[in-house]
Amino acid sequence: MKSSTNENKESSRDHEMRIGSGYDSHPLVPGRKLILGGVAIPFTRGLLGWSDADVAIHAIIDALCGAADLGDIGTLFPPQDPEYEDISSLTLLAKTGKLVKDRNFGIVNIDVTIIAQQPHLSPFTPKMRERLGQALKIDPARITVKATSTNGLGFIGREEGIAAQAVALLSNYPTTIP
Ligand SMILES: [Zn+2]
Fold it and tell me: How far is the CA of 14 from the centre of ligand 1 (A)?
């Protein structure tokens, strides 16, 4: 038999919101396509990784994993697994979105910042929002994409790599979904 204290705990869990954060970085190398936020960006180099190395999506996946207690991107989609070689990270994002939904969470919002010295990314962010929204089956208005640089500092400033950080807020209020 439940004590009233436990019932109170249970009811507060009925209306739960959870936040998660994610970070990722990959090296920039010649001979690879640059894919960020699911969009191919014209550039002389691309990011090196097992999948398409889309840092923005990888940061979002880790933010969703953190918020929904799903482990992390490496446990969900192990690197070196042939199934994920050169896979579009949009596919991985769609799978993660399904797992989040299976846990009865809706996505309130996602905010991602891409940190790159080059190229200039702001012309591409509306398309990124659209692609990310499609993969997650949510309104693109729930996803914000920002681009910044490190003003020449560090490995990003030297154009050796690109990083991204993201936060995701989830809710199990049915009325907030999608
Ligand atoms: Zn990654």
Answer: 33
